[in-house]
Amino acid sequence: xxxxxxxxxxxxxxxxxxxxVDIELTESTHLLDEWFVDSFGIVNTTLFxxxxxxxxxxxxxxxxxNFRSIETLAQFVAGQLxxxxxx
Length: 87
Hints:
Blueprint: H1 3-17, H2 39-53, H3 70-86
């Protein structure tokens, strides 16, 4: 899956699940500070990533660095997909 495709899927998910009419969602929007993804949202996002991209996330993967923005989440997903493809 191409990086832009991953970003588009994540962006569509965030717009659908965490509507925020006051801020434009971009690849660099800070999800935890600006888009207000809370702990419940992190759980939902983790479930979406695991189901949609068919990858497993460990507790260590669920951190502020990976969940900072769509860009950082897409990089994480792309890295996990490469690991899966290499097996």
